[in-house]
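Journal club prep — side note

Before the paper discussion, L.F. wants everyone to see what a predicted structure for a comparable chain looks like in token form. Sequence:
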Amino acid sequence: MSGELKPGYKQTEVGVIPEDWTVEGLDAVCSMKSGEGITSAGIDQFSEYPCYGGNGLRGFTTRFTHDGCYSLIGRQGALCGNVLGVKGRFFASEHAIVVTASARTDIHWLTFVMGEMRLNQYSESSAQPGLSVSKLLNLVVPVPPTSPNNAPSPRR
């Protein structure tokens, strides 16, 4: 029975997925943008808002750039390609890529999927590893059908 698919599944460029799923580019399920510049003088350990960079939490700051649920991808540095889910008000530095889910995409599902993609393999070699937003948006992912409330339906 080697090579035969179970009924209800199909072979795609991302592997075997349920027949009712599709394969789409990340650009169809989210948008991505690098965070804002901040100097170390603007980061401390006692301000109100967490500040995330390419390697996760850098400290805290007095202002925020985002409010809601997002995924962050380390854009530069040793942990480039790491994916972190964040919620609430926070500051995203220029070393993080902020991922905003489209209206039909569940951010928690997207964070998990991107975390499984080993994004660091797409880093471009230079003085230190770095990821390109345009390169990431061209990657493809398996996408479950959406439920009436526009969130991907759970599948186990």
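L.F.'s comment for the group: Helices lie at 26-29, 107-116, 133-137. Keep this in mind when we get to the figures.
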